[in-house]
Structure formats: structure tokens, C-alpha cells
Amino acid sequence: MSNYSVREKISSEVARELEEYPKIIRHLLFHRGITKKEDAEKFLKPDYQRDIHDPYLLKDMKKAVERILSAILKEEKILIYGDYDADGIPGSVILHDFFKKIGYDKFENYFPHRHNEGYGLNMEAVEQFKNKGINLIITIDCGTNDVLEVVKAQEYGIDVIITDHHLSQDEKIPPAFAIINSKQSDCDYPYDMLCGSGVIFKLIQAILNKNNFGIKEGMEKWHLDMVGLATMADMVPLQGENRAFAFFGLKMLRLSPRIGLKKLLQKNKIIQKYLCEDDIGFTIAPRINAASRMGDPLQAFQLLTAVDEASAETLADHLNKINDERKTIAGTITKEIKKVLKKRQGDDAKKVLVIGNPDWKPALLGPVANNLAEEFNTPVFIWGRADGEFIKGSCRSNGKINLSELMEHTPSDLFLTYGGHKMSGGFSISHEKIHLLESELCKAYEILTKDGIKEDESFVDLKLNINDVNWTTYNDIEKLCPFGIGNEKPLFLFENIIIDEVKLFGKEKNHLELIFRNSENKKVSSMGFFMTPENFSFPIIRGEKINLVATMEKSMFRSFPELRLRIVDIV
After folding, report:
1. How far apart are CA 468 and CA 107, in angstroms?
2. Cα(495)–Cα(464) distance, rounded to whole angstroms?
3. What pTM was estimated for this model as a whole?
4. CATH label, 51-220, candidates 3.30.930.10, 1.10.3720.10, 3.90.1640.30, 3.40.50.1980
5. What is the pLDDT of residue 547?
């Protein structure tokens, strides 16, 4: 359990500046760094024209656009090389749909096999493209670190345009025809946290600014469904331009005509017009990622580009099936890990949790690491090998440490490769170095936190009364949606509230519902998924007083709006 501190009160000066907003909105804005009325207006009311920057501010954009327009004019063969996750796949859908829209068909999509080829460009694939007569490769969500592969493509007479958002690991830059990546040190773009799909959207914007191909102005906004999906799925901060992409992307997703998306939502009992960021994080993105984790990423791409109901239905069923299989395997791995951790309890607590097994399939470890990071409130690194040549793993942060920085502060020869963001990442390491992983990460953690992170302290935004769980409060909170990294769901503390009912639900009875009563004797429901009373060291029974840490949410199950709490912790 964590110790929770309530965030400081808003200053009187800021309260006056933001006085037109309800008290709870003023408080939440203040703790998002928003202290001026103008900034509050921008945050609460995203505007497409105002918030979406000029794509030509991105380094190499002009070169990339001219090369693509030349390829179209000459009817050259274009290869779209997308990463296999819930950023690269939607980004590949965007460029696929764009080429179809302008009537250009001399292109094909390619996704590397997660297990056999790994992340990014690879030599075997480049060899294939040479034999196919490809003239131009456009990468999506990868390529920044693929120096040798780009050199090889050049030798074969294939130009490469890299669109990516990852940092270079060793500062070696691929000699690509153009690199569109706002994280380049010499790129003057005003926002550097776009996801891969966001970058490819900027490329399409730039192309249409140069040649609209007779397409009605503004039609590119329909691609925002995929941009929004990727932005919310890829754990990039929902601030700045990303907030606009997430905000308008969610609107487009609720209207999207994509047959495959509709089928997937129907089969998971999600009503499209009420789609929210949680549906993306817990339902859509895991099924897109399951395609590559369990087999072929092309199946997720085919679902999102399907044009007939029969194939969409088959693909939606398939993604549901393999996602269930993934969850079963991940559940088994999680149980194994918890058994090991139980035996370790006598050891000193580690700053970073590192655990692995050569039999574990690396592609399945991301969600496991995510769950453990949340449960144990610590950075988690999990590794496996399966049939691979090297040990590979996934890492997730508890939000108190930047994983990219953590890995950068280890010895330069520890990892074979590594990459990622603040909250999530991946790595590979040799068999000879795996025994050093935990100790080196713990040393790096100490270096990064020497100025003082309070290890066991977490924050709640406000203390509320159970009577505050009402539609007025929720409607104020909802104005800050969509929530995600950098704009987390507001967290509230309800002190000394009395449990009225305790229920377990789900097939395995592994989800918890607690009912409380407000002063009008009306029920207030709270849900804790993958929680049971046994998770806590004190009684969770009727009549017991507890302190509840929770978010507030609207459930639209069976189209009926229900206001409830989502349990984060009980202290």
C-alpha cells in the first residue's frame, strides 16, 4: 500500500485568474501547470486550426514530400514499412488509406514479424524489397536506429524516408533520403512528443498542402481516428498537439465508418458513440498488439482496413481469440513471478524489480510488466528468450522514473539494444550480462534519484465526500478528457466511508464491488478490477470504515449511464 498526500491548495492569485471555472476544475488545471486563463481556454477547448502545427516546421519535410510526389508521378513502387504495435499499425493504415484515396495503387504494406525479425528495418527484409523492385521505403514508427539497413537499401538503389518518434541510441544517424522525427536535435518543430502515427499524419498534411489531388479540404481529418487511437495507446503525453489529436481522434473514432473497428467494438459490447479512452487502452489496443505478440501483425492491419463484413467479422473473432490466449499465458507468467517474489520477501527491497525465465516468450511480457509495475509500485524489467538468439525483455515504470533515462545511466556495454519512453520500453541483452541487469539498474536508479524521490509517497488530487460523487462533479471532471499520460485521471481520497455491501463478480469472482451510501441513502458503487478482499491486510466487510482512493467514471453498459468510482487503492 502507498502513503498518499493531498496535492497543495491552489494559490489565491491563480484562483482569481481562473475564477470563472468551478473550484474542482481550477484545482485540476493548477496541478497540470495551467495558471493563466488563456492557457486554460486552450486546454479545455481544443481547436484544430490553432493547436495543430505547420507540418513544414519538421526537419526534412519538404524533401520527403517532393520525393513522394515524384514517386507518384513516376509510378514508382513504394513500400510502407510499419512497426508491429498499436502505433505503427494505425500509422500504416493512415498512409494506406491516403494512397487509396488519391488513387495510387503501386504500394504495399509490410510489417516485420515480432519474433523472427524484431523491431525496425532488417537486412532480410531489405533484400526482399530489392528483389521486388521497390524504389522507395517509408518507415512508420521505426528506422531512427537502423543505420546499416538504410545503407544497404541505398546500395540497392532504394531511397528511404524515415518517419519516427524514437530517440537515437548512439547518435549515429541513418543516411536516409529524409528523416522526419521531431526529436532530432536540429529539428525546430514546436512539439517533440508526437507518436509515430502523429508523424505520418503530419506527412500527409504536408503532401496535401503541396498537391491536394482533388480531395476536398479537410478530408484528412478522417484519418484522425487512427491518430487518436495510436496517441492514446502509445503512452505519449496527452499535452500540446497530442491533446488535440486525442480529443479530435476520439470524436472521429465515435463516428468512424471502419467495418473492422465496428465489428471489434460490437463483439466486446462497446457502443461506438460512447467510446472512451479506457476502451482504447483496455480493449482495442491490446487486440491490435495481440496480433504481433501471438502471430502476424498483418491481421490487425487487415481488420482496420477491411472493406467487407465477412472478413471483418472473421478477423475480429480471431483477434479476440488470440487476445484471450495471450491473457491466459500472461496470467500464468504473472503467477510464476508472484511465487518467486513471495520467496524473496526476506530479501532487501529492490528499487527496480528484475525477473526472467528463458522459457518465457518476450513478446508477451509487456502487459505482465505493466500489471506488476502498478501492483508493486516500482519499475519492472521482465525478460525471456523462448527461441530467440538473445535475451529480450519489456520494462514498465510506476511513473516515478523515466525508463529511457534509467537505461541510459547503465554501463554502455550492458544492453545490446534498448529503447522506449518514460513509461514503457524494451531491451535485449546477452546471456553473459543478464546476471548484472538488476544490480546495474538499481545503481542507475540511485543516481537518478539522489536528489530525492519519496519512494512510498503518492498523490491524490483532492479529498472528497461520498456526497460529491454526483453528475455535477463528474461533468466538471469530464471537461479535462481524454485522460492518459501527462493528463492522468484525477485521483480522489474518500476518508472514513462505511462499506454497505461487498460483492465479487466476473467468471472467476476476481473483481470487487463495494457499495456505499450517501447522506440521502442512495447507493454509490465502486469497482476494483482484479481485486478481492484478500488483497488487503485489513477487513473488507460490511460495516467497516475505510479510506478509499478512486477515480470517478461514467459507465455506459447497456446504453444506461451509471456514475461510479474506480478503486485504485484502499488504505
Report:
1. 56
2. 8
3. 0.90
4. 3.90.1640.30
5. 95
